[in-house]
């Protein structure tokens, strides 16, 4: 059988069709392990044929394709065929104008196939070793079975009693298991009820979140209303300023009108200078007095304007300060509310995560407990069936042994009858048979001792099985204790969740009270500002009235010379 084939430097790739025939023959070969095809001018068509051979061959382990012209297409075809091969371990393909990624992929595929080949070899070796061990164990078991068959010939009554006792114990165990299954069903029902309660609590949390969102929307609306009220107040103040400016313009127009009257009077006086030469001195005095009055009026008007500007500035600064304080307080309270809401949301998320984790733990533990219960039930059933089969086999063997013993006893009785009939002439034979009977008695006593030892061993085995049953019962009790602990944990979680919900409700109530107090404060501030604006309007009206009264008093002396002239 050929294992190695070296074909380097032969130019096999010059005729691709013939090389394809070579690859078809390679597909049918089951003995070749190493194939060397270096420097054979192989192209991508030859690479396709090699890939088909790799897919179909089941013995090739090493392949050398260095220094050919396979190229990118051929490299990809070979790469596609490698996952389908289970025997190739080494593939050398350098010097074929292949990119680095294809080379790396081929190396990875080869390493994977090598690992798979090693694993298969290990699996085959282990399977052979295990099969040999199994055969040895089967032989040992056969020997043990034969020995047990020989040992269980005289145990009919004890076996039947033990069987009845085992049946009673198994019935009691089945009743206990049925009771425990009922308890587990009740626990599952309680767990479902707790799940329903958890769902209702989650709905309550969602409702609380919706209420918080509604309250946030109400806060936003209140904020918008406050901003609109501030805008209205600003507009009202602007209108007041406009009215004040209009009143100042009217006062200036009145002053101009008075100046025009004075100029008219001067013109009239200049035209009638000849007529009022006697009154020039008085007119000069009056003019000086009028100039002084005008200067006083101007000074007073400037002072009043300055006072009014100062008052307006002070009012504006006070208003700005109050607005800034109001805004700062509003932003601080809004920031505090946002922090509280974020803390509540984080607490809610933490609680939801804890609930999810606890529910997942409860479900996983419940599933584990159910699986353990099912496993124990299956194990108990299997043990019960095995014990029953073993006991049935032992009973059958004992019955067969009893039949054989009865047959032997009948034969012995027949022999004894024959001996009694021939006792007169067979004294020597009787003596010999008496010796044989003594020997048989000794053998029987030895067998009885052996049977007692075997009975003790069987009793120990039965005790071990009972211990296993008691251990299973202990495991079931541990599972029940775990279920009780889980129920207690669920109750504690419910209590904690209810307390947290109550605390959240208290926090929400406190927040609503704070918002109401804040609204009352805003209303008080708005009323104070309205009262201040009314007071400012009253002061400005009084100021206008006083200024008009002063202007009228100043205008009264200028009309007296005219009356004198008329006289």
Automatic annotation (TrEMBL):
Keyword Isomerase set for record: no
The entry's keywords: Coiled coil, Cytoplasm, Cytoskeleton
Highest taxon above the source species: Eukaryota
One Pfam family matching this protein: LRR_6
Keyword Cytoplasm (UniProt): yes
A GO CC annotation given for this chain: centrosome
Stretches of the chain forming a coiled coil according to its record: 120-296, 334-408, 446-528
Subcellular location, record wording: Cytoplasm, Cytoskeleton, Microtubule organizing center, Centrosome
Family matches, as PANTHER family: LEUCINE-RICH REPEAT-CONTAINING PROTEIN 45, NY-REN-58 ANTIGEN
Protein name (record): Leucine-rich repeat-containing protein 45
Organism, as annotated: Trichonephila clavata (Joro spider)
Organismal lineage: Eukaryota, Metazoa, Ecdysozoa, Arthropoda, Chelicerata
